[in-house]
Amino acid sequence: MLVSELLSRFELYVDDGTELSTQEELDLLNKVYQKVCAEKPWEFLKKSATGTLSTSVAYVALPSDFGYIIENNNYTDFTTTIHNVTSPRVVFVGSNYEPYTIVNWSDRRQYRDMPNVAYIDIANSRLYFAKQPTIADSYEFDYMSVPTTLTTSSTPLIPERFQHILYHGMAIEDDITQRYDKARSYAGENKEYYDSFLRDMCYWNAMLMNN
What we know:
Blueprint: H1 3-13, H2 22-37, E1 46-52, E2 59-61, E3 66-69, E4 90-93, E5 98-103, E6 117-121, E7 126-129, E8 138-145, H3 164-178, H4 187-207
Parallel strand pairs: 5-6
Antiparallel strand pairs: 1-8, 2-7, 3-8, 4-5, 4-8, 6-7
Helix pairs in contact: 1-3, 2-3, 3-4
């Protein structure tokens, strides 16, 4: 659904009783949208970052929508032995996809000048390599993205059948902020709708993974 449709459904559920302006409604929708997207590592927010290493600096820029790096060095087949005993989050480098283990930023000094090691500098939005690359190889890693702010002509990344969670979430907050008479508030009912859609979405997301 378009955001404009979601806003219309929100107004329908609050019976046009909201005192919010169109911009305030849009701001509230984005607040709920970001909250839902941050609930868990949804499959629809996973992305792959690719690029080329620098031979002059020991880092590359993180994607502008970077949230956090995700596991990408496991096997779906449980009978396969995993030789990596450290973090299952790696950067694959070169045409042979050589794994570079990603270590914690706070542990970076213990790995200084070591090959096949990288870490995230979130404050500066950079992926650092413990040892300066000497070849401009390709790199790839998987990450959880942060969705962009919605406009009235946007469509949320959430699958359409679950998008109803957004206007129910909006209605909860609208009730809390504007309806002081609890006897007239439908916050509880909208919370039940919100939770129901969230459970359905969580189940669907789990079914996309083989573990």
